């Protein structure tokens, strides 16, 4: 099961110190995010080798839903580490928050997720994530999404969380339902897929963490 959820986070302009902060590097992003089974922390150089292994393991499903999964032979550990080095800079500048989730019991990397296209003034961004094939069937996707939503509302002060998935992705639809999102409509042909294909984007929204499945979530500076 590969989940390709997207979140859109929105909060009224000027509704807190962070919204008024001109210097984005001063915005507090406490990390890591911890749940009983997962530790989510920023991706960094050195993560490329096991990311490549997870991509190879999960390729059939990634190639179905992820727009970046066009050619397996184009991925190398060095290329991924180079990308993560750039992501480290983007995280420090608060442009992109790309996270990697480890299963606490085994120490294995199991979920890749993050917050992207962040507009701090409007408090909007998008996110997506995927779970490696060997970790599927354990509710890892649901737990990581639950944690990220709670982080968005609790740590970042968001007031609206939107969720989207490509039409036909039943795994993503089930997660949206489990997390209590309300349908908000469909955007025709809005999601790009591998091979030049496109899918309708199914949209949902939440306006607080109330009603989420119970989950013990903590975040703090390492």
Can you walk me through this structure?
- The protein has 222 residues and is an alpha+beta fold.
- The chain is 27% helix and 29% strand.
- The protein is built from six helices and eleven strands.
- The chain has helices spanning 17-20, 48-57, 59-65, 77-92, 140-154, 170-178; strands spanning 6-10, 33-34, 38-42, 97-103, 109-119, 124-127, 130-131, 160-166, 182-192, 198-206, 218-219.
- The strands form two sheets. Strands 2, 3, 4, 5, 6, 7 and 11 form a seven-stranded antiparallel β-sheet that branches. It has a four-stranded antiparallel β-sheet with strand order 1-8-10-9.
- The chain is globular and about 45 Å long.
- The relative contact order is 0.23.
Can you lay out the helices and strands and say which pair or pack?
Blueprint: E1 6-10, H1 17-20, E2 33-34, E3 38-42, H2 48-57, H3 59-65, H4 77-92, E4 97-103, E5 109-119, E6 124-127, E7 130-131, H5 140-154, E8 160-166, H6 170-178, E9 182-192, E10 198-206, E11 218-219
Antiparallel strand pairs: 1-8, 2-3, 2-11, 3-4, 4-5, 5-6, 5-7, 8-10, 9-10
Helix pairs in contact: 2-4
């Amino acid at each position: 099961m590969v989940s390709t959820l997207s979140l859109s986070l929105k909060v009224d302009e000027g509704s807190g110190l962070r919204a008024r902060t001109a210097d984005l590097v001063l915005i507090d992003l406490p990390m890591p995010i911890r749940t009983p089974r997962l530790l989510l922390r920023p991706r960094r150089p050195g993560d490329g080798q096991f990311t490549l292994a997870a991509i190879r393991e999960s390729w059939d499903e990634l190639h179905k839903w992820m727009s970046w999964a066009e050619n397996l032979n184009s991925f190398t550990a060095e290329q991924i580490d180079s990308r993560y080095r750039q992501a480290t800079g983007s995280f420090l500048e608060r442009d992109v928050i790309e996270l990697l989730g480890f299963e606490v019991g085994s120490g294995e990397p199991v979920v890749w997720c993050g917050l992207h296209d962040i507009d701090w003034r409007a408090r909007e961004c998008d996110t997506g994530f995927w779970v490696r094939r060997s970790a599927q069937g354990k509710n890892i996707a649901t737990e990581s999404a639950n944690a990220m939503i709670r982080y968005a509302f609790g740590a970042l002060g968001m007031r609206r969380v939107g969720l989207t998935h490509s039409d036909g992705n039943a795994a993503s639809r089930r997660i949206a339902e489990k997390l209590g999102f309300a349908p908000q409509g469909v955007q025709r042909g809005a999601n790009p897929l591998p091979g030049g294909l496109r899918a309708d984007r199914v949209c949902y929204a939440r306006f607080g963490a109330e009603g989420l499945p119970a989950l013990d979530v903590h975040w703090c500076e390492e």
